[in-house]
Please model this.
Amino acid sequence: MEPSAIEDITTRDGDALLYQPLARSAAPSGRSRAKCRNVHLHEEQITCPYCWEAITFVVDPSESQTYTEDCFVCCRPILVCTEVDAEHISVQVTQEDLGF
Model:
């Protein structure tokens, strides 16, 4: 029996997480076929701008991005800005309503 939906896979590989998003492509029969690509995710420790607790975020190093993620402690929305270059990853956080 074939599963109805294939989910992304996350596994731990040393200090980084290994994320395998599954891209869909059409097979000759018309059914979709899953393709895997490996992306090493990095863990970054930040301080919540609301409750000041140290929390860990998982960052995708493949591109710079800005997104909102809830604090794991106080559940308030944190605006996260990641800047990725060839040598390092920079992560800035602020309260969502303050912006960057």
About this structure: The chain has a mean pLDDT of 75. The CA atoms of residues 8 and 21 lie 5 Å apart.
